[in-house]
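hiii so um. not sure if this is the right channel but i have a protein structure encoded as C-alpha cells and i wanna go backwards to a sequence. like what aa goes where. can anyone help
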C-alpha cells in the first residue's frame, strides 16, 4: 500500500527497511502537544483569512481537541506506517472528521510544521532548565551562607595553595550557573521567530497571516526568510552548546565531590541518600551520584557534536537529515535535567567536615603568601624580595618538619632581621581568610554578604539568572 498522505505518484509502498529508517514517530511523538498547538493556530488563521470556511475550521478544531485528549489518556494509537507525529495526527483527524481534515494542510508543509513544533518544545525546555539551575543555585547559596567562615584548603594544580572558605567555593559555582542561565535566556531570545507559514521552503500563494500565527504561538514575530525558517536548527545547537557548558560545570563540581569525599581527603560527608555501598567491602561509601553526573556529561557533549555533524554540510533548505535533530536534543535535555536534580540533592545533603577542612587548610605552607604580604606591608619590602625571603623560611620549616607558625622567631630573624613577633598574627588559616577582604575575595564577611544577596535575588526574581 502506498502512503496515504503523499503516495499519489507511487506505485508501491516502502520497503520494510525504508519504514524502519524513515519513521520518526517513536521519538517525535514527544512533540504532540506542540504539533496540536501549531495546527490550532494555523487552522484559526486559515479561517480568519478566509482560506477555509469557518465551519470546516470548527470541525478541525474539535477533532484536534479529541486527539489531544486521546494522546493525553494514552488511547491514541501511533503508527509507524504514518512516519511521524504530523501525519499520525492528520490521519487520525481524517478518521474523526472525514475529508475536511485535509484542508488543515493548506499553505503548510511538514517542513515549517516540524521546525515550529521543535522550536516550541525547545523554548519550554529552556525554561525548565532555568528552573532546575535556579534550584541548584539556591542550594549552593544556602550552603555558602551556612559555611561562610568554614575554612578549607584552596587548591591550584590540586596542591594546597591558600586557605579559602567552603562558602566561597560554593559561591564560585553559583556564579557559573548564573552564566549558564544567562546563556539559556539568550538562546531563548533568539528562538523568538516563528517558522510557521514558510511552507515547504518558498512561502505560499495563499493570503496567510503569519503575524497572527506567530503571536498565537507566543513568538515575537514570523521568521523573515522562508528558506532559513525551515532549515534553521540554531536554536537547538545553541541549547546544546549551553547544555554542554552547564555539563562542564556540573562535572567539575562532581569531580570535586568525589575528591573531597574520598577518605584520603575526608573534607565532606555525603548523605546515605546519594551514596552506595559495596557488595564485598563493607566499609565502602561510594559517591556514585557524583560519578554518574561526571560521566553523563559525555552524553550531553555527544549530543551537541552529533547535531553539529548532522547540520554542517546541509544545503538549503530542508533535508531529511534534519529529522535526526530530535534524538540528540531529547537525550541531552533529559540527561542534563537528571544531572541537575541529582546535583541539587547532593549539595543540599553535603556535610563539610569543618575540623578536617581546617587542618587540611593549614597544610602545605598555605599561609606563605600571608607571610610574604606581611613583609611587604610591615617592612616595605618589594614583593619579589618578600617572596624570596618567604621561600627560605618555608625551606627551613620543611627541613625541620615544622609548620610555618612553629618556626622560632630567632630562626626567621636569621633570614630577615626586620621580622618581629607580630608576624605570627598572620600565619594562622583563620587570619588568612579574614584578611582577604578585597572585592570577590574569600573573607567570611564578603562571603556572608554575597550569599545573602544571592539568596534574596534568587527568591525575589527566580528567572533573573
Ligand atoms: N519527520 C520529519 C522531521 O522530523 C518532518 C518533516 C518531513 N518533511 C519532509 N519533507 N519529508 O524532520
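sure thing!! here u go:
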Amino acid at each position: 500500500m502506498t502512503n496515504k498522505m503523499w503516495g499519489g505518484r507511487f506505485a508501491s509502498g516502502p520497503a520494510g527497511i525504508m519504514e524502519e529508517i524513515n519513521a520518526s514517530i517513536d521519538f517525535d511523538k514527544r512533540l504532540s502537544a506542540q504539533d496540536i498547538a501549531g495546527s490550532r493556530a494555523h487552522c484559526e488563521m486559515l479561517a480568519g483569512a478566509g482560506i477555509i470556511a469557518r465551519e470546516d475550521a470548527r470541525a478541525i478544531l474539535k477533532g484536534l481537541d479529541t486527539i489531544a485528549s486521546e494522546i493525553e489518556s494514552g488511547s491514541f494509537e501511533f503508527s509507524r506506517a504514518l512516519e511521524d507525529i504530523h501525519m499520525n495526527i492528520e490521519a487520525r483527524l481524517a478518521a474523526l472528521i472525514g475529508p475536511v481534515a485535509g484542508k488543515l494542510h493548506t499553505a503548510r508543509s511538514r517542513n515549517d510544521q516540524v521546525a515550529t513544533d521543535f522550536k516550541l518544545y525547545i523554548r519550554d525546555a529552556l525554561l525548565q532548565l532555568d528552573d532546575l539551575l535556579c534550584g541548584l543555585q539556591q542550594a549552593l547559596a544556602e550552603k555558602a551562607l551556612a559555611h561562610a567562615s568554614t575554612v578549607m584548603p584552596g587548591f591550584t594544580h590540586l596542591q594546597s595553595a591558600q586557605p579559602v572558605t567552603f562558602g566561597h567555593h560554593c559561591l564560585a559555582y553559583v556564579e557559573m550557573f548564573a552564566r549558564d542561565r544567562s546563556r539559556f535566556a539568550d538562546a531563548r531570545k533568539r528562538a523568538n521567530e516563528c517558522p510557521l507559514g514558510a511552507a515547504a521552503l518558498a512561502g505560499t500563494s495563499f493570503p496567510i497571516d503569519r503575524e497572527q500565527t506567530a503571536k498565537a504561538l507566543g513568538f515575537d514575530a514570523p521568521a523573515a526568510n522562508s528558506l532559513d525558517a525551515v532549515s534553521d536548527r540554531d536554536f537547538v545547537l545553541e541549547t546544546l552548546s549551553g547544555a554542554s557548558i552547564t555539563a562542564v560545570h556540573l562535572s567539575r563540581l562532581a569531580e570535586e565531590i568525589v575528591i573531597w569525599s574520598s577518605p584520603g581527603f575526608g573534607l565532606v560527608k555525603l548523605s546515605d541518600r546519594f551514596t552506595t555501598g559495596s557488595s564485598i567491602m563493607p566499609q565502602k561509601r561510594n559517591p556514585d551520584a557524583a560519578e554518574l553526573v561526571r560521566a553523563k556529561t559525555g552524553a550531553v557533549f555527544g549530543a551537541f557534536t552529533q547535531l553539529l555533524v548532522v547540520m554542517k554540510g546541509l544545503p538549503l533548505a530542508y533535508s531529511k537529515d534534519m529529522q535526526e535533530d530530535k534524538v540528540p536534543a531529547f537525550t541531552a535535555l533529559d540527561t542534563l535535567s537528571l544531572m541537575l536534580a541529582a546535583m541539587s540533592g547532593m549539595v543540599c545533603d553535603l556535610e563539610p567536615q569543618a575540623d578536617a577542612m581546617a587542618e587540611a587548610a593549614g597544610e602545605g605552607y598555605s599561609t606563605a603568601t600571608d607571610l610574604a604580604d606581611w613583609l611587604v606591608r610591615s617592612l616595605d619590602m618589594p614583593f619579589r624580595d618578600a617572596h624570596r625571603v618567604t621561600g627560605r623560611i618555608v625551606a627551613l620549616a620543611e627541613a625541620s618538619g615544622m609548620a610555618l607558625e612553629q618556626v622560632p622567631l630567632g630562626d626567621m630573624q636569621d633570614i630577615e632581621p626586620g621580622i618581629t613577633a607580630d608576624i605570627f598574627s598572620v600565619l594562622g588559616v583563620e587570619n588568612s581568610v579574614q584578611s582577604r577582604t578585597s572585592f570577590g575575595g574569600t573573607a567570611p564577611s564578603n562571603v556572608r554578604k554575597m550569599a545573602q544577596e544571592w539568596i534574596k535575588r534568587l527568591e525575589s526574581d527566580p528567572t533573573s539568572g
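oh and The first helix runs from residue 16 to 22.
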